[in-house]
Design goal:
There is one protein chain. This protein is mainly beta. It is 0% helix and 59% strand.
Amino acid sequence: MTFDVEVNGRGRTISIERATADHYRVIVDGHAQLVDAKRVGSFGLSLLFDGADRSSREIQVSPSGVPGEMLVGIDGKSVTVVLNGRRTGHGVAEGGGHARGEQSVVAPMPGRVVRLLVAGGDDVIARQPIIVVEAMKMENELRSPKAGRVKEIAVKAGESVVAGRVLAVIE
């Protein structure tokens, strides 16, 4: 999954893909690093970076209260990180809300459906959370790509899903 983020006013492209059970290949602005990641508490992550020095970092990631924005604590400093909401390569137009025709909401990566926030036949607005999927030990709210009606919910809570699986269809 690839994200465009803004950290302290500077744009960055970050790509994250699972390498093994606890290892992730993280690419920041074209520079790849293998990272061992473990959840610590509600908002914490312990990161061990592979490489010559095998450095480690404890970070805290928490919602800021502003949609698309997070507060990230690293080494005792807090920075604001803004996600532009554009996730590439997965067929869901997150930002526009002007999508036409049926739009599928797909699993961005392998995970487990935690909660269904809507049911078939429900009316939704653009960017409304509709399904919560747990992946990489984090809960991700998947949002409606457009205003419309939920045509189909193709999964059940507790179900495991693979990347790219259609979870819901909005018409």
